[in-house]
Amino acid sequence: MAISPDTIAAVATPGGRGGVGIIRVSGSLVPDIAEGMTGRLPEPRRATLAEFRGDDHAIIDQGLMLYFPGSASFTGEPVLEIHGHGGLVVMDLLLRRVLALGARPARAGEFTERAFLNDKIDLAQAEAVADLIDSVSEASARSAVRSLSGEFSACISDLTEQLIQLRVYVEAAIDFPEEEIDFLADERIVKRLDAIAILLKDVRVRATQGSVLREGITLAIVGPPNAGKSSLMNRLSGQPVAIVSAQAGTTRDVLREQLVIRGMPVQLVDTAGIRSTADDIEQEGVRRALSEVTNANVVLLVIDQSGSPEIVKGAIRGMLEELKDVLDDFDGDVILVFNKNDIASSAGSVSGVDLISPLIERVSQVSVSAVTGNGFDALYEQIERSAGMNSTVEGVFMARRRHLDALARAAEHVMEGQAQLTMNAAGELLAEELRSAQRSLGEITGEFSSDDLLGRIFESFCIGK
Length: 465
Ligand SMILES: Nc1nc2c(ncn2[C@@H]2O[C@H](COP(=O)(O)OP(=O)(O)OP(=O)(O)O)[C@@H](O)[C@H]2O)c(=O)[nH]1
Ligand SMILES: [Mg+2]
What we know:
The chain is an alpha/beta fold. The chain has helices at residues 30-38, 88-100, 110-117, 123-133, 138-148, 151-174, 177-185, 187-215, 229-237, 280-295, 309-328, 352-356, 376-386, 401-424, 427-445, 451-459; strands spanning 8-11, 18-26, 48-53, 59-68, 79-86, 104-105, 217-222, 255-261, 264-270, 298-304, 333-339, 363-367. It folds into 3 domains: 8-121, Probable tRNA modification gtpase trme, domain 1 (Gyrase A, domain 2), CATH 3.30.1360; 133-212 and 398-446, tRNA modification GTPase MnmE domain 2 (Four Helix Bundle (Hemerythrin (Met), subunit A)); 218-386, P-loop containing nucleotide triphosphate hydrolases (Rossmann fold). It is 49% helix and 17% strand. Strands 3-4-5-2-1-6 form a 6-stranded mixed sheet, covered by helices on one side. A 6-stranded mixed sheet has the order 8-9-7-10-11-12, sandwiched between helices. The longest helix has 29 residues, at 187-215. The radius of gyration is 29 Å and the shape is flat. Mg(2+) binds at residues 230, 251.
């Protein structure tokens, strides 16, 4: 991907009314544009009061101007920031003036793209710029900042460095075949390879959590009619989103609500109670409820625990029968929510986990009351765990799906390399696996990334970034 020689400009602040609005300009024409509008180029990195004038010399606005020479700017090129008043018309007039002086409108993400192409930041950092801006919670903002400041990239470089050193060592030994046998038997190689695998695992755990903070999870609430699914939906979302009534079969449509639970963006889905029914509309509701299970990351299976243990067990067995097929295709966690513990509790005497675990491996059980809110702390904790978040993991990195894929591929190559070494004593193949692992990691920082991928990443940014 080549950097275009154009000077680019865009309004960097959100559209609308505001005390201050900022126009950002990047490229070689910056000194001319500053002079054209204000008569001079300000001192580098010094906020300078100026009058911004049109081509007829009439004042458009007055405000601050900031100039960053190419050596010390975000994009790696001369950058000018024009801080005017944040009105739609003022911003438009200022931008038009900048364009008349030779700049062209910037494409989405083009400032960050230039920063990447000029080696000011790597690809993971560029993505973190967008992720920080789009953060929906404090936890996700913190992890984005960690990636932006280069902590994630530093871990990747450290891993890459270790892979290179080991590879060079292995390749050197291959060149002297008489020493190769001794060398491959060397315990230190195995140890170094193991150390790389452990480090890689740690980075994956931290990145996986960051990706949950970024992508969020879908939580489907399912269960028999009247179990209190809609009541649970309402309590979790903090508002009366769904109609609640003592009549079985109240909810028919699928209801969705977007919220943040413990820093994670969560899409909460309430569904119709699952039962056999002659009612066409309700049947359609049940069909839709079942299909939500396949789309979810975590299923909350709600059971009314106010009946006798036998009734509760019967309800769980009935649900398993109905859900059997969809659960076959589901690879997330099921949280069995024993509801209505304000009336009676069977949670102590019935183990739903024992009943469900033959069908689904990852299942847990909590006892709550959607009416009083009792037990919700435990429920929140379980949701967090089931989403793959672990509060003891420190230094979470904001990561995207593509980073996780690249890390998974790197881990596979390292594992294959370990096998080649210990089972086949094949130095040549070990070196090849190390090279492939290094390549996979290079995709994260953008060292080995196609123009196509880069294009797609920067396109998803907004204008002015
Ligand atoms: N005592 C008590 N009653 C509850 C609790 N949760 C729900 N209920 C009551 O149970 C009845 C059914 O609640 P809903 O939330 O409508 O149940 P649902 O599972 O959504 O039912 P459908 O939409 O018909 O499938 C209502 O009368 C609620 O007030 C609870 O924790 N304790
Ligand atoms: Mg309902």
